[in-house]
Amino acid sequence: MKHTDVNLIMRNHMSSCLNNCVLQVLITMSPKHVVFKKVSRDKSVAVYMAKRDFVDHCDFVDPVDGVIVIDPVQLKGKKVYVILSCTFRYGRQDMDVMGVAFRRDLFLVTRQVYPELQDKEKLTHTKVQQKLLRKLGDNAFPFFFEFPDNLPCSVALQPGPSDVGKKCAVEFEVKAFCGESQDEKIDKESSVRLSIRKIQFSPENSKLVPVADTTFEFLMSEKPLHIKLSLSKETFYHGEPIKANVEITNSSSRNIKDISVSVEQVTNIVLYSNDKYVKSVAKEETDDSVPSGTTLKKDYTLHPVLAHNKDRRGLALDGRLKHEDTNLASSSIVKQEVLKEVQGILVSYKVVVRMMATGTIGSSEVSLEVPFRLMHPKPEPAKEGESDDMVFEEFKRAYLKGVVYGDDDESPTEA
Q1: Residue 384, phi then psi, degrees to nearest 5
Q2: Cα–Cα separations (whole angstroms), residue 281 to 190, 265, 266, 323
Q3: Which strand (E) or helix (H) includes residue 2?
Q4: Neighbour tally for 91: CB within 10 Å
Q5: Mean pLDDT (whole number) for 289-303
Q6: Which helix (H) or strand (E) holds 38?
Q7: Rounded to 5 degrees, what are φ and ψ at 251?
Q8: What is the spatial distance between Cα 279 and Cα 43, in angstroms, rounded to a whole number?
Q9: What whole-number distance in Å separates Cα of residue 145 and Cα of residue 9?
């Protein structure tokens, strides 16, 4: 046997042993659940939750569940409550004047957790709650909320570099506190606030292909200009390039030049006002031209991502997180039976092609647009293991860089 053959056999044997060892390690490793926790300043209450993002599946919404751990000594006979709220904020708190508040609670529900009004078994709805109750002991109590069908998803308008304070947003929050009753003023020392998000994933891919075409007729021109704009599909995922196909048949006497194609985000503030913000989030400007009597057929590729739009005031984002953790807001999907006014902020997207038509008697801009959806793909359902191993992680949201928040926020004030 040749020396090279011996080396090859030894390498194959070592590789096989290594693969078997790695496989054995993966089999024997127990998957650990990441559980987020937040403790009040006086240590009287602590909240444990298995996730911070809750999905609206259109036909149902993930319930909000968790466990609260109390310190009976610190409570001093007080009760413990937990609140789930959805708030629409239109402006800064210091703008509230003449009795007009620039915020509105779209949803607010309070539950008494301690002393418990029902047996723990009746209030325990998930396996994670069961594992937490086993691990955290007798002073742990479960809570459970279900979202109504008509609530919007989390969305916030990006502040500018010099803006401070809370801005326009739809926000969700879980708050735990202790007191003599649920109506008394909440003491910050004995309360916990946790910002959560309600999000949507893309529905099943439709076979609809967005297409728009139109004909423009000009003065002193016997024949028209025909434009067609189409996309390959209706729904694109965040970070996915968008290819727009443009077809121009210029039978008119005018010359077409300065063709540009852009993705525009349309944000409608439908509560308190009818403000509408239209902002380009991706654009390709070209020197392409279509002289009279010629045609053009071309694909343009656009990349609508937040990384190319940092510090632009008024862009709608998916929740209020730092740039690395969030993205441009997903398209709003409103159920037929829900009033749009209750949604607070609605977001949509469109691809727009613009061009200049020039002639002997002047020039004019012509344009054509098609709508599409920008969303997250639906992930594979997570498999829940039987292991009780858990990793506890401090519950902190990373806020937008440079934004200063008040003392009532869950994270420390940042400069």
Answers
A1: -90, 120
A2: 43, 7, 10, 15
A3: none
A4: 15
A5: 95
A6: strand 33-39
A7: -95, 0
A8: 46
A9: 61
Buried b (16+ CB within 10 A) or exposed e, 34-71: ebbbbbbeeebbbbbbbbbebbbeeeebeebbbbbbbb
Structure tokens at 406: 């008040």
124-145 per-position pLDDT tens digit: 777 888 888 888 888 999 998 9
* Residue whose tokens read 């029902």: 118
Question: What is the secondary structure of 159-178 as a DSSP string?
Answer: PPTT--S--SEEEEEEEEEE
Name which of 130, 148, 146 is nearest 67 in CA terms. 130
What confidence tens digit (pLDDT) does each residue in 298-329 have?
999 999 998 888 878 888 888 754 444 678 99
Tell me how far the alpha carbon of residue 55 is from its chain's centroid: 10
Proportion of the chain above pLDDT 70, given as a percent: 74
The strand pair at 362-375 and 235-237 is best described as: parallel
Q: What is the DSSP string of 222-268?
A: SS-EEEEEEES-SEEETT--EEEEEEEEE-SSSEEEEEEEEEEEEEE
Contact 195, 53 (CB under 8 A): no
Give the CB-side neighbour count of residue 173, counting CA atoms within 13 A.
Answer: 22
CB under 8 Å to 228, separation ≥6 — which residues? 211, 212, 213, 245, 246, 247, 248, 368
CA gap 119, 141 in Å, rounded: 10
DSSP structure class, residue 99: T
User: What is the distance, to the nearest Å, from the Cα of residue 256 to the centroid of all Cα atoms in its chain?
Assistant: 39
d(CA 88, CA 109): 15
The one-letter code for the residue type at 140 is A
Q: Write the burial class of residue 359 (CB in 10 Å: 0-12 exposed, 13-18 middle, 19+ buried).
A: middle
Residue 101 scores a pLDDT above 60: no
pTM for this prediction: 0.77
Average of per-residue pLDDT values in the chain = 79
Helix, strand, coil % over all residues of the chain, rounded to 5: 15, 45, 45
